[in-house]
Backbone:
């Protein structure tokens, strides 16, 4: 699997892969990460990549030319590359997308900066367009990292224990039950006594009840789906 980050600011992205689980996955050759800077494709004599918006409006918009050429070069190298644009004007990214996308051989994330990307680039090259939430970031880099992280942990071999994939929040409509580590008593605070007794069917029932409580409190919309058996 290859992830290519198409960005003017690869420094914002690189550090995320320098530690922990994703670093180990790269060392094990489970996936690799590449960077493509649209500025390297700019035909402007000052390597400009943005301009004021046609028709007026605040801020600068990324020009089509550097992105057209960058994405053409990417597609020439690998015709199977799956190109994803990050923008708040898109469908929300969810866990099912993370699972589905983990089967692709090559994903490219195109991050906009400034006020956005010329719409013609998105129309011509986007296989998918995602938002990571109802708020505006200064650029798509964080959003692309969020999606890359969520996708990569679904690739075989990235997580040590694949059980952790099957019992997570959003695998059903319910949020995950709370977890506790040792010691069993810390600063006068106990873990739930049922967790300690070793009766696995009782622990399972308690975890389901706690999952329902958490979901009712934090995500009543998801609890409704659970009750209707949508998921
Ligand atoms: N770029 C700026 N805001 C964003 C968001 N919420 N999701 C994805 N890309 C973005």
Residues:
């Amino acid at each position: 699997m290859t992830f290519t980050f198409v960005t003017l600011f690869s420094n914002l992205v690189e550090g995320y892969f320098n530690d922990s689980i994703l670093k180990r996955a790269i060392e094990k050759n489970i996936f690799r990460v590449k960077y493509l800077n649209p500025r390297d494709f700019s035909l402007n004599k000052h390597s400009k990549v943005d301009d004021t918006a046609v028709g007026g409006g605040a801020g600068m918009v990324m020009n089509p030319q550097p992105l057209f050429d960058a994405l053409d070069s990417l597609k020439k190298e690998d015709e199977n590359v799956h190109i994803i644009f990050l923008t708040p004007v898109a469908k929300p990214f969810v866990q099912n997308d993370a699972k589905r996308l983990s089967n692709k051989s090559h994903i490219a994330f195109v991050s906009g900066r400034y006020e956005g990307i010329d719409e013609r680039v998105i129309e011509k090259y986007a296989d998918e367009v995602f938002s990571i939430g109802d708020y505006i970031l200064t650029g798509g880099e964080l959003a692309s990292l969020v999606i890359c992280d969520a996708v990569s942990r679904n690739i075989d071999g990235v997580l040590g224990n694949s059980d952790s994939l099957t019992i997570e929040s959003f695998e059903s409509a319910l949020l995950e039950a709370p977890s506790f580590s040792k010691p069993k008593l810390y600063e006068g605070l106990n873990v739930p006594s049922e967790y300690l007794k070793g009766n696995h069917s009782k622990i399972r029932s308690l975890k389901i009840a706690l999952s329902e409580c958490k979901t009712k409190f934090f995500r009543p919309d998801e609890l409704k789906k659970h009750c209707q058996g949508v998921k």
